[in-house]
Amino acid sequence: MSDLIQLGAPNARPRQPREEELNLRFSQDAISELTTIATHYPDQKSAILPGLWIAQREYGGYLSGEAIAEVAFRLGRSYAEVEGVATFYSMYNTAHEVGTHMIEVCTCLSCQVCGAYPIAEYLKKKLGVEFGETTPDGVFTLHEVECLNACDRAPLIQVGDQYYGPVDEGFLDNLLDQLRETEGSTVAKLAHEIVQVHLGEAESLWREWKPELTGTYYEKVSTMATAPEPTLAAPSAPVPVTLETEVAPPVSMVVEEPTPELDPEPEPPAKGRIVVDDSA
Fold this sequence. Notes:
5-stranded mixed sheet
């Protein structure tokens, strides 16, 4: 039994990984990105999510145990803490290695009504895999996912940072051919785009996806760019504006009080007649 989990004894929190135990793979630019993102938060723990996106990019689209351990080491957290975060969110690929392109098929209600399952069966037959599996050549991984929040385009699939829909068999044939010719991992590209959102335009180290470059996926722009000073135009002299307004003459209002209605007076009885009141 693990020394950390013993019945009748306090469960000590797993320690932070030591550098000598790890095969660190973050590039210097990735380290700079993580360091910058960590300054956005009051503590290092808050940077775990963007740190995992950096790791998913640096490790080729898959968060292995080594990738999770490196994030834990660089943020000063325990392996168990970072692993708990990574395995909680489905967008982090922790269950198995993924292919160069991951095809995610939405099968929620709107897509299901519009033919998501026939689309999924066609992809399974076309690629020769089931959900959660990767083609033998390592190019495609097929996943079933929950709602992608684009119900107006059902049936919908996601590949990397792109949505496609509504799709049919002919569209899928063309898309698969295009993806086979696409350089670089669209899985890692999605992670890269999310990292840039965390950084912001002024802090981004990278401009665009360049998978053909040796040793990195991206084209470096500069070393931690700073936000440019805004250029303000000199204020122009105010233009006088004359407003011509036509004042309407005052209107006198006379309020007439309504005259109260009076009950009509009864007619006097005719002379020489006796009037008998039968109402009593």
